[in-house]
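Deliverable D2.4 — example input (structure tokens):
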């Protein structure tokens, strides 16, 4: 019933967490991974927000997160949200390690002893935008990080750079601290910087 409701184009009802199935790319079957990559290849940077699309394309090009590695271990994953009981991908997002030295370049690694990575941009399927999916995905990744911190008993912090005011508000609602605007040398542009520190429960 829920699937038909949205396929008919009625977008007034917000999806709930219970309407979604969450997983990671690494734990999906090859067939479901192919669905994810097909969605990534269909994205348009102009239409779908340049940063998440660039991130998704990088993941696809390098084949990362599909198989276990010494770098991309939980909680560093590509997180997926599916419409419950279907193969309809609703959102994908990453929690990524600093494998490209961004934190060092920007001085974050030196100033934050708890640093462990970045919240990558997420990309909600066009059919499901405006339904609060982005907020649910942020909350899901925060919970995954909390679970990791609880199991290791070590605090951890993550950062996110955003130009989108809506994304910034969603991050603050999830507990991120707005650190103000920061000039990003690698991107040669100014973005808002957000930080979240998670402590063991």
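Example output (designed residues):
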């Amino acid at each position: 019933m829920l699937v038909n409701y949205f396929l008919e184009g009625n977008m007034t009802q917000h999806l709930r967490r219970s309407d979604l199935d969450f997983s990671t790319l690494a734990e999906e079957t090859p067939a479901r991974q192919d669905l994810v990559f097909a969605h990534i290849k269909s994205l348009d940077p102009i239409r779908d927000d340049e940063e998440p699309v660039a991130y998704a394309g990088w993941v696809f090009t390098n084949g990362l997160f599909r198989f276990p590695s010494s770098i991309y271990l939980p909680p560093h994953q590509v997180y997926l949200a599916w419409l419950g009981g279907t193969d309809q991908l609703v959102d994908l997002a990453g929690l990524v390690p600093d494998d490209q030295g961004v934190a060092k370049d920007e001085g974050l690694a030196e100033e934050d002893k708890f640093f462990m990575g970045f919240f990558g941009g997420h990309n909600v399927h066009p059919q499901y935008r405006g339904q609060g999916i982005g907020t649910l995905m942020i909350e899901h990744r925060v919970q995954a990080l909390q679970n990791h911190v609880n199991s290791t008993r070590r605090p951890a912090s993550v950062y996110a750079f955003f130009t989108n005011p809506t994304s910034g508000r969603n991050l603050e609602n999830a507990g991120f601290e707005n650190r103000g605007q920061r000039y990003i040398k690698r991107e040669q542009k100014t973005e808002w910087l957000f930080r979240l520190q998670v402590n063991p429960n």
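Residues 80 and 92 are 5 Å apart (CA to CA).
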